[in-house]
Amino acid sequence: MTLKTVPVSILYSTTGPYAALGREAVSGALAAVAEINADPAYGFGIAAKIDDPCGRAEAYAGLAQSAIRDVGCRHIIGTLTSWSRKDVLPVVERHGALLWYAFPYEGYEASDSAVYLGPCPNQHLLPLFDYVLPRYGRRAFIVGSNYIWGWEISRIAREVTEASGGQVVSDRYVPLGATEVDHLVTEIRQKKPDFILSNLVGQSATAFIEAYGAFRKSHPDAPPIVACNLSESDLEGLSPEARRGHIATAIYFDRLDTPHNHAFKARMAARQGAGRRISTPFTAAYTAMSILARSIADAGTDAPEAVRKVATSRLFDTPAGPIGIDPRTHHAAFRPHLGLSDEEGGFTLLQSAEETIEADPYLVRSMLKRAAAPHPAALKVVK
C-alpha cells in the first residue's frame, strides 16, 4: 500500500479544568507532526484532526467516533484522564481503531485497542514511595481528584504505606477542577503528616500547590508534596515559594541529561524559540505521535493491527530514552526518575532507576517481589 496522507485524531481538552495539560499535549503532538511532514523519509504526511472535549468526559466518545467514522482516523492520540480514556476505549474497540494513551495512570487495564505510553504504578508510585517513606516518614496525607485516578492511586498508596508499618492519616477528594482547597491545608496543619501525596489534576492541583505554598511561608518545616503526575506545566504561573520543594516521579523531566533529550530540546528551541521549558505532557504526546509514525512507516500501512505489531516488536529512541512496548500488555517499559522542584518551576533530578522497568499493570509481579524482599529496591542516586 502506498500512503500519501494519514489522518490522525488528536483528542485533548484545551479548555476546561485541565486545559493547561491539554494545550501542552496538543503542542507536543503538533511538533511531532511538523517533523514528520517535513521528513521525506517517511513517504507520507500526517493530517491532524484536532478536537477539544472541553474537559467533559461525556464529549470524548462522540468526538472519537466522529473522527473515526467521518474523517477516517484509525489512530487517536489522546485522552488525559482515566475517565475519558475509559469512555473512548469502547469506541476504538468497536471500530477497530487504536488509542495511543501517553499519561501516567492507575493500571489494572489492558486492551488490544490501546498502546499505553504512560507509566503505571510499578513505574511511578512504587519508586516514589520507596524514596519517600524511609526519608520523610510513614504518616501520609492523601488528596486526590474525585475520579478513577484519585481513587485507585490512593488505594495502592494506602496498601504500600500500611505494608511498611505506616499510616494514612487522612484521605480526601475534591471534584475534578475544584479550586476550593483551603480546608485541605487546614487539615494538614492539624494532622501534621510526614508528607502529602497529591493525586489532584489540572487547576485543582495548581490551586492546592499555591495554597500550600502560602501556608509554608509561615511553616518552613512543613512536609513536602509528592506526586506521580506533577509536571513543569503544573507549576507555571505559581509564586516561587509555591513552586519549590515538591517531589515528583516521571519518565521525563526537562533537565534530563541525555543525548536524546539534548537533541530534542535543540529541535524544539529552533521551532518554538529558546528558553521555553519542555513539559512532560508535551513530550508524552510528541513521543506518541512519533512512535505511531515510525510504526506506520515500518508497517507500510496505517492498519491498526499491523501498526501495533510493529510498535510492539522494536525499540524506539525518544526524549525519555529507548522505549520498548510489551506485545502482551501493550504497555511500555520506562526508566523512572525522581525530581525536586525549585523556585523556577523546574525539577532537579534526585534519582533515576538503574535500568528500564517493565510495566506490571496489575501489580502481580511487583507486589510478590516486594513481599519477598527484606527492603524495597533502591534507586540509583544521580550525582
Automatic annotation (TrEMBL):
UniProt GO BP: amino acid transport
Pfam family, one: Peripla_BP_5
Highest taxon above the source species: Bacteria
Spans traversing the lipid bilayer: none
Protein name, as recorded: Transporter substrate-binding protein
